[in-house]
UniProtKB/TrEMBL annotation:
Transmembrane segments: none
Organism: Yinghuangia soli
Keyword Oxidoreductase recorded: yes
Catalytic residues identified in the record: E249
Family: Belongs to the aldehyde dehydrogenase family.
Reactions listed under catalytic activity: an aldehyde + NAD(+) + H2O = a carboxylate + NADH + 2 H(+)
InterPro entries linked to this entry: Ald_DH/histidinol_DH, Ald_DH_C, Ald_DH_CS_CYS, Ald_DH_CS_GLU, Ald_DH_N, Aldehyde_DH_dom
Protein's name in the database: aldehyde dehydrogenase (NAD(+))
Residue span(s) of domain Aldehyde dehydrogenase: 13-474
Pfam families: Aldedh
């Protein structure tokens, strides 16, 4: 039981202004494993003030090398406590421990390491010969960043925002999800040990109403949000009213196309980590499996074989492929989608309910639907659980049409023996990232983000740092 009674503001643990708290549960057992203060509007005001004070103080004069050293120290600090982070996140989110170690924690340090190196090479200032005059182009920190992160990959998404913000010279007010707040407290401890200056990182756990106060705060210069498309619309509208820059990484309903020549013995086990990663609680999950009509039954059978063999159980037990969902609310939501799929005529091949023998914990069987058409609810809406929909297509043009027939465009995949042909298909898919013969949904050195209702702007790569600087042109004599 981890009980925190203070809030991290200005480099110190301070008393919250209110008395309300949030309980954090172990998703496998439903037991309360932690408690944190519920931030108030006053706490938000204090956090933003601390961030503003830091950006107007010594932090503003730090060099790229000095900021790189701090980012590297954060990475090293997380690595020294890797298993502690992994176990906390596995319990909070339900993410299986093997996955939590790699995807949730180690990947976070890789992002930090990338920006620790990039900041030393990034062109913060460059001279150009313009059309008339010489110019000096400067890239300056955008200012105080409100970073609002979801519950599914809390540390990793935090780092997607924090690492480039630190590299740019910004300060951050981090708003974690109340459901997965414990790892943020551990990150604050690491930040202190790493020498992050006071006020550069501030953390306030808050509900939706108080979070909105952060979004509209007059001293916030940029908002970076990862979460649902519905919440993204609200945040985008609030920022639009204030002409405030915003990055939105939102939902997805990504398609994985199995081409006619795909080797299913390679492709099916190869795609599943990208489809059921984190129990399907991933915005990049490729949950629409598009199969050629001529091989449809073969694809369904192969998926049923592999998904049916997945072990479901406690997220802390090594070897389990599927853990629980994050909450009772999320489990019931996914069960509702499964019932909707049945009602609309889709056929459950594997799974379809709660696993036997797991009476405690918010578990759902990994589920495969066949006979799905792309207009069904389970093919159009983001389920955020371990549910796959297998959709038949007639030819490559039809596969591309189906893949693009979605309000989302975040991720996607193409599998085929002819890599050149598969790559050509990837060019036709309207989505931010497409993997060819791989389940990997992103590369930390390349931009990540979505088309359509999957968001605005990009994270990762140099583009992730570009999003946190303002451009200034100085015209020279």
């Amino acid at each position: 039981m981890r009980v925190h009674d203070k809030i991290f503001i200005g480099g110190e643990w301070v008393e919250p202004s209110g008395t309300d708290t949030f309980d954090v549960h172990n998703a496998s057992t439903e037991e309360v494993i932690g408690r944190v203060p519920a931030g108030t509007e006053e706490d938000v005001n204090r956090a933003v003030a601390a961030a503003r004070k830091a950006i107007e103080g010594p932090w503003a004069s730090t060099t790229p090398d000095e900021r790189g050293d701090i980012i590297a120290a954060l990475s090293a600090g997380i690595m020294t406590r890797l298993m502690e982070f992994a176990e906390i996140i596995a319990q909070e989110t339900g993410c299986p421990i093997d996955n939590s170690v790699g995807v949730q924690v180690y990947s976070s340090t890789m992002v930090l390491d990338y920006y620790a190196k990039l900041v030393r090479e990034y062109p913060f200032e460059e001279q150009r010969q313009g059309a008339i005059f010489k110019t000096l182009v400067r890239r300056e920190p955008v200012g105080v960043v409100a970073a609002i992160v979801p519950w599914n990959v809390p540390l990793f998404v935090t780092v997607l925002k924090l690492a480039p913000a630190l590299a740019a010279g910004c300060t951050v007010v981090l708003k974690p999800s109340p459901e997965t707040a414990l790892d943020a407290y551990l990150l604050a401890e690491v930040a202190i040990e790493a020498g992050v200056p006071a006020g550069v990182l501030n953390i306030v756990v808050a509900d939706r109403e108080v979070s909105e106060k952060l979004v509209v705060h007059p001293d916030v210069d940029k908002v970076s949000f990862t979460g649902s498309t519905a919440a993204g619309r609200r945040i985008g509208s609030l920022c639009g009213e204030r002409l405030r820059p915003v990055t939105l990484e939102l939902g997805g309903k990504s398609a994985c196309i199995l081409l006619e020549d795909a080797d299913l013995d390679v492709a099916v086990p190869g795609l599943l980590p990208g489809s059921l990663n984190n129990n399907g609680q991933a915005c990049v999950a490729q949950t629409r499996i598009l199969a050629p009509r001529s091989r449809y039954d073969e694809v369904v059978a192969k998926l049923a074989e592999h998904v049916g063999a997945m072990t479901v159980g406690d997220s802390l037990e090594k070897g389990n492929a599927i853990g629980p969902l994050v909450s009772e609310r999320q489990r019931d939501r996914v069960l509702g989608y499964i019932e909707k799929g049945k009602a609309e005529g889709a056929r459950v091949v594997v799974g379809g309910g709660r696993p036997e023998g797991l009476d405690k914990g918010w578990f759902i069987e990994p589920t495969v639907f066949a006979d799905v058409t792309n207009d069904m609810t389970i093919a159009q809406e983001e389920i955020f659980g371990p549910v796959l929909a297998v959709i038949a297509y007639d030819d490559v043009d039809d596969a591309v049409r189906i893949a693009n027939d979605s309000p989302y465009g975040l991720s996607g995949g193409v599998w085929g023996t002819d890599v050149e042909a598969a790559t050509e298909v990837s060019r036709r898919i309207a989505t931010g990232t497409v993997s060819v013969n791989s389940w990997v949904a992103m590369d930390f050195g390349a931009p990540f983000g979505g088309y359509k209702q999957s968001g605005l702007g990009r994270e990762l790569g140099p583009e992730g740092l570009d999003a946190l600087v303002e451009l200034k042109t100085v015209v020279l004599p």
